[in-house]
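Hey, I was hoping to borrow your eyes for a little while. No rush at all, and the record is pasted right below.
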Amino acid sequence: MVIQMMCFLRETLQGSQTLNVHYVALQDCSPFTTADGSTIREVFNPRNSVLLNGSLAHASLEVGQKTARHFHPKAEEIYFILKGRGLMEVDGEKAELGEGDAVAISSGAKHQIEALGDEKLEFLCCCAPAYSHEDTVLCEDETGSDN
């Protein structure tokens, strides 16, 4: 699946309200490594868009790579798989995910995803409130079990 969005910020006045719309091209979003070790391109967040309370990122993991087991005290997350296969672990429960699958992760739930198969895992990650390194707590136990 290819994500294509046009890049511009437009304000349109409708009566007494201002409607803000923000379009962005994925290739214009600089990749960086998150606290959990995944490579993401932050598409929308309150720092770069009209959003006030959430964020959307395109994340990727190379085959065999997995995120560090972690949790977010404040943020809820949704992962939506675009390409590849992954093994998702949330609070000790594991499930294999593939293209078109999604998982909702509540705040405080310890989780980790690993890229399986022979192609890079690509997924969208939606967070509310927006993703921040400060709201990411790495778990000392990265084995996928709660001790």
In short: The two ends are 38 Å apart (CA to CA). The CA atoms of residues 66 and 114 lie 4 Å apart. The chain has a mean pLDDT of 85. Residues 31-138 form a domain with the Jelly Rolls fold (CATH 2.60.120.10).
